Amino acid sequence: MKKAIYIIIGCISVVLGIIGIFVPGLPTTPFLLLSSWLFYNSSKRLHDALHRSKWLGPYIQRFQEKKGVGWKTKAVSIICMWTMISISAFGIIENLHVRILLLILGVVGTCSVLFIVPNPKKK
Predict the structure, then answer these.
(1) Is residue 23 domain-resident?
(2) What pTM was estimated for this model as a whole?
């Protein structure tokens, strides 16, 4: 029963991680790391498949190898995030309070990418 629950939660976590690739503000790596741990404790086959995945495996490998995220990737992430925030805040949302909240969350997200997400280690 425990293994089945781990597999179900792991699959949900993989789906959330995939969505996080495309949706700014939804993290990818934490969901994939959670899935990896859940699959490790429930299904070696799913765990290995996740790590070998052409699209998802690199997220986990970068974290495991403590490579961090390069400045170019951070810049692209921030540009994508602010593009979506701008479209939402100034093109779709009309409520001033929601617009302000969205902009504040954008600043928090930008600060997180710049100051919390680790940079690559120099050799």
Answers:
(1) yes
(2) 0.59
